[in-house]
Structures are given as C-alpha cells and as structure tokens.
Amino acid sequence: MDKKTALRLITIYGSYRELWDSRCKEYYNKKLREELWDEITKNFNLPKHILKAKYTNLASTYRGERSREKSSVYSKSGAKRQSAYKSKWFAYDAFNFLNEHSYIVARSPTSAA
C-alpha cells in the first residue's frame, strides 16, 4: 500500500468515531464496527482483512512514535531536555484525531515507577 492510500485509510477510519473512541456507546457494538469496516472497504480495492491489518500496523507505528516523542521531553534525571524528538513519519499528523482525547498518557518524571 502506498503512502497516499495509507493516509486515505487513516482519514476514513478517523471519520468513524465508533471505531476508535471507547467513550462512544457504539464503540462496544461489534456488529456495527464490522459494518463500518465494510463501508471503509468500499473505498479500496483490497479485502477487509488486509485493510484492518494495515491499519493495525499504522496505528502501532503511530503509538511508538508518539511514545518516543513524549518520553524524549524529560531526561532520566527528570530534567526537561532542550530538544525533544519530533516525529518525521509520513502518517504521524494523520492520527491527530486520536490526540484530541489524549489516548496516549504522557508520564511526568515524578509519576514514573
């Protein structure tokens, strides 16, 4: 899957809040979620299982990049760093719909175990 198609997949997926927002009542309706994936599949010439696997991979990469950014803000001693890591991954900004709900919890240096 090329980058343009991957970005389109993320954008379409993000438009269906029921697929990713656990605070949404419909998020827990597995039948509806499968129907929404069927809708997404209509936009591509790929089978649903391929699209789901690709999205899972993209989301995993995003979580890793986001975690790397968050953990680079503070050094191991707890001091704030001058320059933190900033992701250059092509799909990073496409996942902004997840940031509005802070699904990835940033740990402050004092909360580290």
Automatic annotation (TrEMBL):
Phylogenetic classification of the source organism: Eukaryota, Metazoa, Ecdysozoa, Arthropoda, Hexapoda
Fetch the InterPro entries from UniProt. MADF-dom
Q: Which PROSITE patterns does the entry link to? A: MADF (PS51029)
Record-annotated MADF domain positions: 8-103
The identity of this protein, by name, is: MADF domain-containing protein
Q: What PANTHER family does the entry give? A: MADF DOMAIN-CONTAINING PROTEIN-RELATED
